[in-house]
Amino acid sequence: MLSDRRLEVLRAIVQDYVGTEEPVGSKALTERHRLGVSPATVRNDMAVLEDEGYIAQPHTSAGRIPTDKGYRLFVDKLAGVKPLSTPERRAIQNFLDGAVDLDDVVGRTVRLLAQLTRQVAVVQYPSLTRSTVRHVELLSLAPARLMLVLITDTGRVEQRLVDCQAPFGEASLADLRARLNSRVVGRRFTDVPPLVKDLPESFENEDRVTVRAVLDTLLETLVEEAEERLMIGGTANLTRFGHDFPLTIRPVLEALEEQVVLLKLLGEASESGMAVKIGHENAYEGLNSTSVVSVGYGSGGEAVAKLGVVGPTRMDYPGTMGAVRAVARYVGQILAES
After folding, report:
1. What are the pLDDT digits (tens) for 58-81?
2. Long-range CB contacts for residues 239-247, cutoff 8 Å, separation at least 24
């Protein structure tokens, strides 16, 4: 365990290096921070921090920079995330409140996160497997053709055509709509199949084929949409940090193109808590020079998806974590009100 003073020295090194992009020396630390000890004591503390792997010397006779282990301890010891200012919070709310549908919500969230953090933003669409049914609408398009409209609690809308073997009257359609909604509204999608399994048997023989066709289409929709979707934005922000990547940013860009990799990274976030993966903590080698800050978002205290940012390990962690958490909270409110 490091002493409080050495933790304070480490915190000062991280803050200075993030802010200046230059290795930090003992003289600079004593001039910029009120550490209450002599430069000689600071040098001794830095030597201990280096021996224990929290900081490193990139060049001979240069200052020190934090290592992944140093950033990890810095993040773990944070007293709290940096709160957003009132104008920042108002700007987030106004920007997201203008969204017209789920695609717009996700798109606006990606742009907003990238602008606030100046990192790469990644937002996962709400998962149908974690969503509940808000309403199922059935519309008659022709005597033997229906449209099924599935609306989730997260505002997601799925539309499918259903071709029937025989005409299906408006009275039968209204009956099916009412019975279907009575069984599935407010229920998780994963619970739907057994809830509707015996529904066809409650209809007259001549209507059962059509009822089965509607149910088959409904259940196929769940299977088709089981694949997770992501939206990514702000990749150009990486060019601002070229010197933060050892050789080239190409491995990072290649990793960002792999949706499976990004889904796994976001998956590190717990249902409601925040996850910070630093440098080599990221299993994917191409992202060993980056940090990922992610959190779950949703309504009613339950996460339906994840969002986060990817950037260099030399990151403003308190500010980034504050922005990610604030945006997730507003997106959750929008989904709850939609």
Report:
1. 876 678 999 999 999 999 988 677
2. 240/118, 241/311, 241/312, 241/314, 243/21, 244/289, 244/312, 244/313, 244/314, 245/289, 245/312, 246/289
